[in-house]
Amino acid sequence: MKVLSEIWLVRHGETEWSLSGAHTSRTDIPLTEQGKERAVTLKPYLARQDFSLVLTSPRQRAQETCKLAGMGDQAEVDANLAEWDYGIYEGRTTPEIRKEHPGWSVWNDPIPEGESLPQVAARAEKVISKAKAAGGKVLIFSHAHFLRILTACWMELPPSNGKSLALTTGSLSILGYERETPVLRLWNRSFETSL
User: Fold this and answer.
1) pLDDT mean across residues, the chain
2) What DSSP string describes the chain?
3) What are 144-156's pLDDT values in tens digits?
4) What domains can be seen in the chain, in order of their start residue?
5) Was 8 annotated as part of a binding site?
6) Is 83 annotated in some ligand binding site?
7) Which positions bind substrate (predicted)?
8) Tag placement on the chain: N or C end, fewer CB within 10 Å?
C-alpha cells in the first residue's frame, strides 16, 4: 500500500463574488478573466508532479480552475469538497450580515438553513481519509473556508482554527508530515506569472 506523502490544496480562481467578499457556496458562478489567468499559472508547476489522485469540488469555479491548471483529465468530482453551505447568508457579505447581527462570524455563529462547523469538518475528515487511502501525492481543488477547515483537521487542531488560515484565490498550499506528525508545508502561495 502506498503511504500518503502530501496533500496539495488549490483554492479556485477569482470570481465576481470572491472579489466582492460575498459568501459563495451553492451559487455556481464562473471565474473572472483574472481568475482564469491565475489558474493557468499553476499548470507548469503541477505538471511536474506525480499525483495518485486528483479531486475537485462539484462547483464550476473549482472544476474550471482544475481544467485550466491542466488537471481536468485526471480529476474526480467529490461532493465533500463543496464549500461550506452558507444557508440564508449565501450571496451576502459579512458587513451586510452584521447590519442585522452585529459581531456575526461564520466561525462562531449559527447559519440558518446552512451547515454547522462540525458538519463541514466531518466532510473534511472524509476527504482526508480518501487521500490517505490513495497514498502518494493527492491534489485537491476546492474553496477557501472548506480548505481552511480541512487544514485544521489535518493538523489535528479544532476545525475553528481554520479562521487563522487566510487563503487567496488561485493559491497553492501543501500539507504533509514531519516524521509522523501532520504539518503545514506551504501555505497560500500564488503564482503571478507562468513558471
Assistant:
1) 95
2) -PPEEEEEEEEPPPBHHHHHT---SS---PBPHHHHHHHHHHHHHHHTS--SEEEE-SSHHHHHHHHHTT-TTTEEE-GGGSPP--GGGTT--HHHHHHHSTT--TTTS--TTS--HHHHHHHHHHHHHHHHHH-EEEEEEE-HHHHHHHHHHHTTS-GGGGGG----TT-EEEEEEETTEEEEEEEEE--SS--
3) 999 999 999 999 9
4) 4-189 (3.40.50.1240)
5) no
6) yes
7) 61, 83-86
8) N
